[in-house]
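Board notes (copied after class):
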Amino acid sequence: MAVELQILGRAVKAVQYRQHRALDSRLASIGSTLAQWDALRAVGRRPGASARELAAATFQSEQAFGTLAGRLAAQGLVDRRSGHGRRIEHHLTAEGRRLLKAGHVVADAVLAECFEGLAEAEREALLGLLLKIEGRGKGEDAPEGVAAE
């Protein structure tokens, strides 16, 4: 029996939507949103990165990431510094690092709940299949914004 691809695509989207809602809801308890925490995570992984690099890492447009980075800077979570030429570099502040760490605890708990119905071998198989669809092998690092989405 062939799998209907639209149903498969919708199932992937439904799982992603459920995870996003759970993450966003639970991150609110530490004073963050999923978009903010994901941006902090990207900056933490790539200190000194430009808005262009961070936008790509978080699956956003440069304009959307720039707006978000401005809000994070206003909240004292990210420090934006002049770099080479017109480049603006992004770095976490001490408060940004604290919020990022708290977000990791929340995300780990949410994702453990999301995947608790799968055995470890099933999780490995799912990851392998998703990476195959994405065009990468199992041994390659996941992109910046993928791990907790």
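Comment from the instructor: The first strand starts at residue 78 and ends at 82. The chain is about 60% helix and 5% strand.
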